[in-house]
Amino acid sequence: MQTNWDDLRLFLAVAREESLSGAGKILRLDPATLGRRMQRLEATLQANLFAKSPQGYALTEAGVSLLARAETAERAMRGVVADLPAQTDQLSGQIRIGAPDGSANYLLPQVCAAISDDNPDLDIQIVALPRVFNLSRREADMAIAVSAPTAGRLVVQKITDYHLHLAASDTYLAAHPAIISTADLRQHRIVGYIPDMIFDRELDYLSDLGISRVSLASNSVSVQINWIRQGGGIGIAHDFSVPAMRGVRRILTDQISLTRAFYLIRHADDQRNTRLSRFAEALSTGLRAEVARLEALA
């Protein structure tokens, strides 16, 4: 019976660590899954490779024989890799990201600029729209969302939590009655989303706060933030956007605080696309770091 290199690679780890848990840590593989793979390998070879006991996995005579052949194959594989021509680690081509305009305006520009610095042959496109993107129609290579979709052939990865608070400009606060508690908000002009254009339940902040009237409303986060910055009223703002708004500060932070999350959404067919996977990892890492940096400045 013939075995493939992946089976031998797993076998080598178990043989060297003498346990499924130890090998699983090295391989980043669940021990139960690894155990099934070893059972399948034994069935394929029609031989018991391990003597299993509470102390671990010890090689049988058949296992010792396979170990010698596996190590020979390992050396051969290393030689093949060493003989391959050197390849650049840089990304190239075009990648399009769909994102709600809050992250598209206040996070993605600097994160993607840093990725571009490291990959000068890569073209990055940001499509900023206040709606859910349809990856099945290939509207984008990947998308950022504020809730995890439950339908479709999609791969969903949580990127990070982020926080939101009420915010207002110093000029607005100086010209209007003091705000000591949430009850005082009834005397103030509220900035927020157009109720029937909220495309994701996670964005219905004001409803959660019991605020029904929105005097200045837009489907765009950027418009809302500019209203707040210009002294138009009080609204919910992402903490990561506050450092970009000179003269704006958070209010009632001890009484009102919201937490939401960003998710990276990809089409299931792209899981084995190394280029997109590497970009997704760089994007997620950059977003986590940038949210943490900006929130510390809020």
Automatic annotation (TrEMBL):
Signal sequence region: none
Biological process (GO), any one: DNA-templated transcription
InterPro entries: LysR-type_TF_proteobact-type, LysR_HTH_N, LysR_subst-bd
Family note: Belongs to the LysR transcriptional regulatory family.
Keywords: DNA-binding, Transcription, Transcription regulation
GO molecular function list: DNA-binding transcription factor activity; sequence-specific DNA binding
Protein name: LysR family transcriptional regulator
HTH lysR-type domain sequence ranges: 3-60
Source taxon at top rank: Bacteria
